[in-house]
Amino acid sequence: MTDSKYFTTTKKGEIFELKAELNSDKKEKKKEAVKKVIASMTVGKDVSALFPDVVNCMQTDNLELKKLVYLYLMNYAKSQPDMAIMAVNTFVKDCEDPNPLIRALAVRTMGCIRVDKITEYLCEPLRKCLKDEDPYVRKTAAVCVAKLHDINAQLVEDQGFLDTLKDLISDSNPMVVANAVAALSEIAESHPNSNLLDLNPQSINKLLTALNECTEWGQIFILDCLANYAPRDDRESQSICERVTPRLSHANSAVVLSAVKVLMKFMEMLPKDLDYYGTLLKKLAPPLVTLLSAEPELQYVALRNINLIVQKRPEILKHEMKVFFVKYNDPIYVKLEKLDIMIRLASQANIAQVLAELKEYATEVDVDFVRKAVRAIGRCAIKVEQSAERCVSTLLDLIQTKVNYVVQEAIVVIKDIFRKYPNKYESVIATLCENLDSLDEPEARAAMIWIVGEYAERIDNADELLESFLEGFHDESTQVQLQLLTAIVKLFLKKPTETQELVQQVLSLATQDSDNPDLRDRGYIYWRLLSTDPVAAKEVVLAEKPLISEETDLIEPTLLEELICHIGTLASVYHKPPSAFVEGSRGVMHKRLPARTGSGESTESPDVGTIAGGSGTETAPSIIPSQGDLLGDLLNLDLAPPTTTGPPPPTSGMQMGGMDLLGGGLDSLMGDESEPLGGDIGGSAAMGAGFGAVPAVMPASLNAPMGGGLGDLFDLGGGVGMPLGAYIPPKTVWLPAMKAKGLEISGTFARRAGVIQMELTLTNKAMSVMTDFAIQFNRNSFGLAPAGPLQVLSPLSPNQTIEVSLPLSTVGPVMKMEPLNNLQVAVKNNIDVFYFSCQYPISMLFVEDGKMERQVFLATWKDIPNENESQFQIKDCHLNSDAASNKLQASNIFTIAKRTVEGQDMLYMSIKLSNGIWVLAELRVQTGNPNYTISVKCRAPEVSQCVFQCCEAVLKN
Amino acid sequence: MIHSLFLVNSSGDIFLEKHWKSVVSRSVCDYFFEAQERASEPENVPPVIPTPHHYLISVLRHRIYFVAVIQSEVPPLFVIEFLHRVVDTFQDYFGVCTEAAIKDNVVVVYELLEEMLDNGFPLATESNILKELIKPPTILRTVVNTITGSTNVGEQLPTGQLSVVPWRRTGVKYTNNEAYFDVVEEIDAIIDKSGSTITAEIQGVIDACVKLTGMPDLTLSFMNPRLLDDVSFHPCVRFKRWEAERILSFIPPDGNFRLLSYHVSSQNLVAIPVYVKHNITFREGSSQGRFELTLGPKQTMGKGVEAVLVNSQLPRGVLNTNLNPSQGTYTFDPVTKLLTWDVGKINPQKLPSLKGSMSLQAGASKPDENPTINIQFKIQQSALSGLKVNRLDMYGEKYKPFKGIKYMTKAGKFQVRT
């Protein structure tokens, strides 16, 4: 007899019958009926109509029946909230049951009923259960807090459950500890800035003890939590590592990978010459290898993580190449990952083996895999120089197979090999040309055309070959068209006599008959170059190309560091930072590896760790990390001062500069697919920026004529605005001379007569004169942008210091920054472009008309939801409330009303930001108590922290 | 944590869903079905699939996809391991893990899933504990339950869950006390055309079946423990003792469990127990191909090689085969092009061979790829790595248990390229 009988139905109407059975007097019949209901529910049938009848069965001594009813309740309570209340009493009663199993079951189920009304009744039983004498109940209650938080976060905070949960971390029972950690971690995910998991050496010790005794799942939670800790020094780091290493031998692969994460992260702090460091490296290899003998799904996740690990520390797996060899019945997703790692591990020592394997793979059936294998051979050639020759001959062997997609793939990679080792393997060109006709994929055609153009002088019939492609020019993809255009121009420059007609043909095709702007642009550039100065054209088009390297497919280091901190997570599977894809992007913390000194000899105390810990309030100026996208943003800014308009007449010196730029720009075009050519053809300075080249090559004379006078006025304006007495923070060094080739910049921000000023002190600490200053901001939270050019009138001679004041507007492009008041700045002079970031006090943005009407204030205060309120403490402030009010008023923080209750002065204040956001605040000042409390309420709660910092700064100065 | 679970059968129907938090609409599985359609083979469905609001993590076992839905950052391995545990539990409870078995026991399945996760956090995944909470269905019990009206849900607090040995329940009693250990090694190897070994490694496990009364404390020592440098233990094994003395000391769970698994890597020399001589050729322009295959024992430590099974995926161009086995039976499926040869035992005096011709599509060009030959075999009473148990002792209890240790070697992924 099986449960399938519960699915059988009768003609009469199932629900009707079930109803009758549920109300039967016989216990047995009732139970059978509930089972039938559950069975219907599991297959998605709607049995919610039976709610009252099922709930009636709940008051029973029969544990199974109780559990079944609970199952039903969890599923349908949401749709019948009023009915669900009926169940509350039984729950509350069950929470007092002498049997801990029942108590736990009741509190567990109650948490699963996602109905607001029920949650209110849940608080008291939950509080009791959190302190229950039985650890089984406590551990169940810990999870229940997480459930409740998911339903009603405010309630959990108000009821103080979070603190109780924190206390449970020191519980005597390891499972309770593990569940408390799990619950806190889940809650913390929705509060990225809260210090819920405040780890200190004592709590770490508790966790490490619990780690040994709790279940495998608990171990995962604890290890993931440990990974967020920043050890104080290398000793602590080592002792944690020592206690975590036994987890590497766990049968559960998730435990192993979480342990690997902790070790990879804390290892960063260990001095490299330490014996233990070497031991640890050795211990990491076997568990990683073992993961590869598990089921394919586990292998896949493991391989994605190993991919990160071998990039960070190739030494761990350098002898384990063979385990990554592909078995022919591996699923395709495992095969492709293994291939990737094989290339990363390829070295001179093992290249012969790797190549033999890759060649074997290239004869397999799966097309995707074969293609990737062929491509891998090319990557090996580029990575391991000694193997290049062997790789090329392997590729030639593969071309001889005449399998169409193998040939095409081989030609694509051979192009890269030519780029890496010019003038070495050109003897194979003849073989490649034989396969010209079989190429039907754009990438392969483009590669072949590139080869023909690049080596036109060695291919006798290059013109014929290219001409044959030209016939169907309009049917080709853009990639091929662009490549063909360049190749024919190259050919023309090499053999001008016989190919004049060809080049004219292609230029007219590209410029007149094409709809593609990229193609037209490139066509015009070539045309003009060829017609004005063929010598220059030669230097541009046939310029020496920078070598390509294996680094191109590596993950960018800062991202890699972050991903190493996220080993074992989804982020590590997708190789993207968590912020890039986690639902709702709740402001995920960027994690970084702990600090290590450059030499790797010893470690300082890891102050970077505190950043990872999440204070997020660093005020010290910092140099922007050279993150690719950020740099790109700044580089794209037009750094030429706005006063220079129109392209200057092309002098010979200018042309040289332009040529370098073109060379670089075009190369990137050829290497990649089709990067649009920015800038116009006139060869103006703007082109430099467009091509992504360093603008330092711009001729110095260009930037000399600058609007003067205006700066003086602004300076004066600044002076006049002073008497208001608004708080201006002292100047700090934003850009140390060391990092900017001798230019030191310090500065501060001020608001004078309604104008925001950036006050800069520029000091030339280099030996040479600096000229041509210009400034630009990256997009920022409040759209700050320079309202005029940077007024540095005379060249800055060595050891000279100059004070500049730059008026700012708030109408620039907006992008949310982290922290909110962060500003990224690029300053250019005749030497280079420098980047730094600084934080402006948000009080600069408080506008003069920020005084709110009392009534409006009251209404707004009520209107803003309570969760937007944040409370802060201002310590050691010895002003009375009136003095404070005056001081704040000077910075456009207006007191609307004052109230005195029991010796406590309450100041109600309003602030308006330049972008129209209102911030309301309540300041509580108690006579004789130097600690003020400030509550900030705002529709955009992100600004609260900044506002608080400002008030504190203003009050203390 | 884990939000929901969907079970999908091979024809793409969702036949069971379970939600541990709020209900996630089953339409989320559409993304899974899309990925399934794209994959050429059922096994090629990627294990992690992103959707706009959720992530789907799936495993394929017994031709059922177990699709877990998660919403926030959860370690994928955690989810996969949990899904494996679900599969194991079903198998443990119902003997098989099939759609029919799950549907037949749907209420037990629901009760189990409810006990295994709470709000997405694992609760009880040890089969010892689960069985105390929910009794596995047996024919006898079903009959008794129907007559007496008793339930298959335990009334007791699962004691093991709170003790220091959560994997063992208290009050175990047996009349015959026995402890059996199986050392099973699987050899994974890739052999190239010329017969030389490209990679070979051994995945070993020690599975135990322990039925001992009370709280026995066992120690197991090996003759050659240094072979075990890459091991994963059952949580019951005391790691410190292993580190210090290379002795396995543990209080065993009750019943069947995996004591440890180990890995002997390709860096150690691994003996290859069988060799294959092959000659598979296609000539350009001819519609016939030659096929010759001979198997022989290599390094078997004097033990016989049995249960030998050869299969090979022949190129698509092969229409049919006309082969002659010296022993055993062979089949060729002209649709899937799978050649299977059930060899049986290898007799070293008279080596088994399979010879004959293959007919190709007339006029078609010679196939590009060479078939790979997969071999399965068993060698009883020997562990290929040479691992040997020295002794097994019991402390903590007075009685004398019956002890037994068995060794076996099997082929894992043993592939010969031609």
Automatic annotation (TrEMBL), chain A:
Gene3D superfamilies on file: 2.60.40.1150, Leucine-rich Repeat Variant, TATA-Binding Protein
Every Clathrin adaptor alpha/beta/gamma-adaptin appendage Ig-like subdomain domain range: 727-837
GO terms for cellular component: clathrin adaptor complex; cytoplasmic vesicle; endomembrane system
UniProt protein name: AP complex subunit beta
UniProt keyword annotations, A-Z: Acetylation, Membrane, Protein transport, Transport
GO molecular function term, any single one: clathrin binding
Family: Belongs to the adaptor complexes large subunit family.
Localisation: Endomembrane system
Domain Beta-adaptin appendage C-terminal subdomain: 846-956
Automatic annotation (TrEMBL), chain B:
GO CC terms: clathrin adaptor complex; cytoplasmic vesicle membrane; Golgi apparatus
Superkingdom, natural source: Eukaryota
Predominant localisation class: Golgi
GO terms classed as biological process: intracellular protein transport; vesicle-mediated transport
SUPFAM superfamilies: Second domain of Mu2 adaptin subunit (ap50) of ap2 adaptor, SNARE-like
InterPro entries from the UniProt entry: Adaptor_comp_med_subunit, AP2_Mu_C_sf, AP_mu_sigma_su, Clathrin_mu, Clathrin_mu_CS, Longin-like_dom_sf, MHD
Membrane topology designation: Peripheral membrane protein
Domain MHD: 176-417
Subcellular location: Golgi apparatus; Cytoplasmic vesicle membrane
UniProtKB keywords: Cytoplasmic vesicle, Golgi apparatus, Membrane, Protein transport, Transport
Keyword Oxidoreductase: no
Family stated for the protein in its record: Belongs to the adaptor complexes medium subunit family.
Protein name from the UniProt record: AP-3 complex subunit mu-2
Species name: Esox lucius
